[in-house]
Specification:
Radius of gyration of chain A: 15 Å
Helix content of chain A: 10-25%
Number of domains of chain A: 1
CATH architecture of chain A: Roll
Order of helices and strands of chain A: HEEHEEEEE
Strand content of chain A: 25-35%
CATH superfamily of chain A: Phosphoribosyl-AMP cyclohydrolase
Oligomer: homodimer
Strand order of the largest sheet of chain A: 2-1-6-5
Structural class of chain A: alpha+beta
């Protein structure tokens, strides 16, 4: 990592668990693919490897997205919000982001379209 | 609300604080605007009023986005993710989503573009 990257990471505000939510957005289509969580090390590895690395809250370990499924997310750019407590990752998604096989995890509607399912 | 909407809300998994993260996305441009939090009542009001209502964690009260600033987010549609613990709201944003006056809260880069600021 560059000095600028280290300094930038120091600006991120992690919650009481040491985590920050990360929104993954398809850099090509603009579709929101998923939300996951990262700790500082996950962000360091993401920047170093240029692919998304999250923190799995259920497994309690680093999660290199795609290691098992092959559905790697290549990093285009990371952004932080005005409060520096949310990260937006623009990615080039290989295959499906969702473990269900859907391209995005947000394939179900709430509200008046709740009965429908995106195909 | 319709019966379908009530049933759909019952599918949402709230965290130990009774909250769920909500990603607001510009329905016209696809830009990710902000991430905020909602409790069940905030989602009920959002669906009833067709505009975004969040839960302000800092103030501990419902937050009808735009009541003070005028920067209302008119609801296009709500979606939930595969685990039903994240909400994606596609909205028509009036003015700026960010309290800084920026259109989106994600106007800063992390990583190799960290020195730049989106204009």
């Amino acid at each position: 990592m560059t000095t600028e990257e280290v300094l930038a990471l120091d600006q991120v505000t992690f919650d009481e668990r040491g985590l920050v939510p990360v929104i993954a957005q398809d850099a090509e289509t603009g579709d929101v693919l998923m939300l996951a969580w990262a700790n500082r090390e996950a962000l360091v590895r993401t920047l170093a490897e240029r692919r998304m690395v999250y923190w799995s809250r259920s497994r309690g370990e680093l999660w290199r997205k795609g290691d098992t499924s092959g559905h790697v997310q290549h990093l285009d750019e990371l952004r932080i919000d005005c409060d520096a407590d949310v990260v937006l990752a623009r990615v080039h998604q290989v295959g499906a982001a969702c473990h269900t096989g859907e391209r995005t995890c947000f394939f179900r509607w709430l509200g008046e379209r709740a009965a429908e399912t995106r195909t």
